[in-house]
Every structure is written in C-alpha cells, then in structure tokens.
Design brief:
Chain A: InterPro entries: TusA-like, TusA-like_sf. Chain A: It holds the Pfam family TusA. The complex is a heterodimer. By secondary structure, chain A is α+β, with helices and mostly antiparallel strands. Chain A contains two helices and four strands, in the order βαβαββ. In chain A, strands 1-2-4-3 form a four-stranded mixed beta sheet, covered by helices on one side. By secondary structure, chain B is α/β, with parallel strands linked by helices. Helix content of chain B is 26%, strand content 24%. In chain B, a hairpin with a 6-residue loop joins strand 13 and strand 14. The chains are: A alpha+beta, B alpha/beta. Chains A and B meet through helix 1 and helix 2 of A and helix 2 and helix 3 of B.
Chain lengths: 75, 375
C-alpha cells in the first residue's frame, strides 16, 4: 500500500487520536493514504465511524501487540 | 461560562428522584443506540464528538437553555472537550466523571429492610447495567449475594458497618457480568458458595450450595434458606432470608422473568423454569419481598431507588407468571428472545475461572445492559 503519511497516536486517550487524525488528513490530497497507529481501544469504532461520516475510506485495520493500525484513504 | 464535573452518584440520585436532565451523548451512534443513561425525565441528544471538532455552533439550537446539561462519552476525555467548547459558547454544562465506564461500574447502596433481630438488608443497585447485589447484616457478620466485580465497594461498606463478611454467595453462574464473589471470599477469608450444577466446569474450590442449605449469619439465626429453582441456569438457586425476603436471582424479576438460553439450553430448561415459577414459588408465602438480581427498565425502580416487590403482587401483575398455557410459555421464553448480553460466553468462562482477562478487558466485556430477562 502506498502510504503518504504515518501518524503516531500511541499512548493518546480519546479524543486525541481522532483530533490528530483529522489534522493529518487535512494535509493530504484526495486519494492519498494515511496510516494511523493508536493504543486507545475506543479508536477502532470511532475512527471507522469518523472516516465514514467524513467521506473517507477505511481500507484496512489490524491489531498487533495492543497497537491498533489503520489505513485511511482520503475522500 | 463554566464546566462542572458530575459524578455517577449524583446522576444516580437524579434517576432516583426523577429529576430532569438533558444528556448530550457524544459517543458513536451505535454505542448510544445499544446502551445509554436511563432516567424517567431525561432527554437526549446524540452526536459523536468527532462531528464537533470544528465547533459546536450547529448543535447549540438543539440544547435547551432551561435544563441542566450533562455531556457524556465513553471514558470522559471527549465529553470534557465538548463541555469546554459549549462553555466557550456561553453555556453552563457538566460532564460525567469517568464517562460510561464509571456509569457501568457505579453501585448505589439502598437499604431494603430490617431483619427480626435488628439486622439489615442492603441492595447495591448497579444503575448503569441493571445488576443488583445484596448484603445481609446481622450481629457483626455479613453475607453478600451476587457480588459484582467492583469488590472494594462491598468490602468498604462492610468495614463502615463494622461487620465481618463470613459468607459470599452466587445464585447462579452469571452470564452478563463478572462475579466478584470468589475474589471477596479469598481476600476476606469467607466461604464462597455456588450451586454445584452450575459449577461443573469451574477450576476453583467452593462450598456446594444446594436446595435446603441453611447458613446462619450473626449470632442470632438469620437463616439463608436456599431454594433450588432451575431455569435460567440448571443450578439457579433462590434464597429466603429471615422468612421475609426472597432473593430470586435471575429466575424472577419485577416486570419480567429469567431467560433460559444463556447457557445454551433454552429447550431443555424451559420446563425447569416453568416448574420453578409456577410450582415452587407458588408454595411460598405471598408476603415475601422479592429481591431480584437484575432490573431491566427504570420503571422497575421504587421511589427510594430500590428494586423490590411482594411476591403476591408479582403473581398478580408480572405477565411471565400469568401464562396459563404451557406451550405459549414455552414460546415466550424460547422464541424472539432479545439479543444476548455482550461477550456472555467469555463472561461465563471468566466466572468459571477458565480465563482471567485483564481489568480493562473485563470492563469492555461488561459494556451494555444485562439482557437476562424475557418479558
């Protein structure tokens, strides 16, 4: 996957992972991909819902050693 | 204006007193749909916090100016952010301390009655999830029935009453919440009782709670008389305390009855459930005060916040006790059942001692309402 930017939101509690993701997304062009790393469990459902409501596409998400990773394509 | 913090205890008092409150719930829509703070005179508006990152202007018109406002989220962080934004916009608002996580774990002790020898019975209302635990106190000793995971609350309460916890019971193997019974018993050196038919797969030591067991709390005999009443689970056991209170576990609730399917055997256990409710309970005094292990809806709370009703009244009013036709009863409790409680299989395995999830994981497993009943 051609990732444009990686955002490290590990250790941050809600709402910061989404606040940072939104900021990072603003700097991308439509079609570019943002990779987000987070440890807040709530980020999973929140990022999915946020991406959907913002017209972005959550391409993939994984969970490894308590680190959640997301790949979001800007809409 | 200002941002204030409101505790789960304060919100609970508003529920009990039927006060008005406007709840701005900033969790995801599906989380809100699944489970929220229930109050008879509460109003709600749900919008996820991430829709408000650019400002709260668009929702200002949805927020009443003449009501107390509480912002709620999953763990607190987002509700503080939104409350601060509203405050900057000129409103006076509060946020819920600890969010829905704290709401799920809050227990409110309510006295439900006195014993003949001067002892007392307390009900611990887990208002957010609908679980009810009990403490029977007599002459310096205490018994706990259906303790929740938040064990400190029971231990601290016993300390404040200057009583020693000697016996801890579970009416059955729970599927909706993680029992704190075994942990309390281990910590205090009390006896932990569990019905053996529900304990076939457990990997810890327990005292076998069987129909007819009599346990005495205190110097004066406060008999906790165990009554075998299968149906919700095969081992489900009710208690009669002091010939006055019937602790019905998950067999009989105020406005509903126990569902027999959470251990996977609805068809097998529906007959047991019927016999427990329609034969065994019928033989008991109608004057007994029923104290169940759950409530489902806020209407089941009495004015003082307790959940209790005379058995005779339930025989007259509870729909689940008034189905003459056996096949209709069978249909009610086996078909069109509500969704099962969140993570109920994992919760059962935790209560059997087969797995020991971390605390954060345990919290997550218990999210949402108890869903142990059918109406």
């Amino acid at each position: 996957m051609d990732v444009t930017k990686v955002l490290d939101a590990k250790g941050l509690a809600c709402p910061m992972p989404i606040v940072r993701t939104k900021k990072a997304m603003n700097e991308l062009e439509s079609g570019q991909i943002l990779e987000v790393h987070a440890t807040d469990k709530g980020a999973k459902s929140d990022l999915a819902a946020w991406a959907k409501s913002g017209g972005h596409e959550l391409l993939k998400d994984t969970e490894e050693n308590d680190v959640l990773k997301f790949w979001i394509k800007k809409g | 204006m200002t941002v204030k913090m409101m505790t789960a205890h304060e919100v609970t008092q508003k529920v009990f007193n039927k006060e008005e409150l406007f709840i701005l719930d900033v969790r995801n829509e599906d989380a809100f749909e699944d489970w929220k703070i229930e109050g008879e005179n509460f109003e709600y508006f749900n919008i996820p916090y991430f829709e408000l990152l650019d400002g709260v202007e668009e929702i200002l018109e949805k927020i009443p100016s003449n009501k107390e406002i509480l912002v709620v989220c999953a763990k607190e962080g987002s509700s503080v952010m939104v409350a601060e934004m509203l405050s900057e916009a000129g409103l006076t608002v509060s946020y819920l301390q600890g969010g829905m996580k704290a709401w799920s774990e809050h227990l409110e002790p309510v006295k439900v009655g006195d014993l003949k020898d001067g002892g007392e019975v307390y009900q611990f209302v887990r208002i957010g999830k609908g679980c009810l635990s009990y403490m029977v106190i007599s002459n310096g000793e205490a018994a706990i029935i259906d303790a929740t995971r938040m064990t400190d609350i029971f231990i601290d309460f016993a300390t404040s009453k200057e009583v020693k916890i000697t016996n801890v019971f579970d009416t059955h193997l729970h599927a909706d919440h993680i029992s704190g019974g075994r942990k309390i018993a281990e910590q205090i050196g009390a006896t932990y009782w569990l019905p053996p038919k529900d304990a076939q797969e457990v990997n810890f030591e327990y005292a076998a709670l069987e129909g007819g067991s009599v346990v005495t709390i205190g110097n004066t005999a406060i008999d906790i008389h165990a009554l075998y009443s299968p149906g919700h689970t095969i081992g489900s056991t009710s208690f009669v305390v002091d010939e006055k209170f019937l602790l019905s576990g998950d067999i009989l609730f105020i406005d509903s009855i126990g569902r027999p399917d959470l251990a996977g055997k609805a068809e097998d256990w529906v007959g047991d459930l019927r016999e427990s409710l329609y034969s065994r309970y019928r033989e008991l005094s109608e004057e007994l005060v029923v104290l169940p292990a759950h409530f489902m809806i806020i209407d089941e709370l009495n004015v003082d916040g307790s959940v209790a009703e005379k058995l005779g009244t339930l025989f007259a009013k509870n729909h689940g006790l008034n189905i003459e036709d056996e096949s209709e009863f069978r249909r009610l409790v086996t078909e069109n059942l509500p969704p099962q409680p969140n993570a109920y299989q994992e919760i059962r395995e935790t209560n059997m001692g087969k797995v020991t999830p971390e605390e954060e994981k345990q919290r997550e497993m218990e999210i949402g309402p108890n869903r142990c009943a059918v109406r």
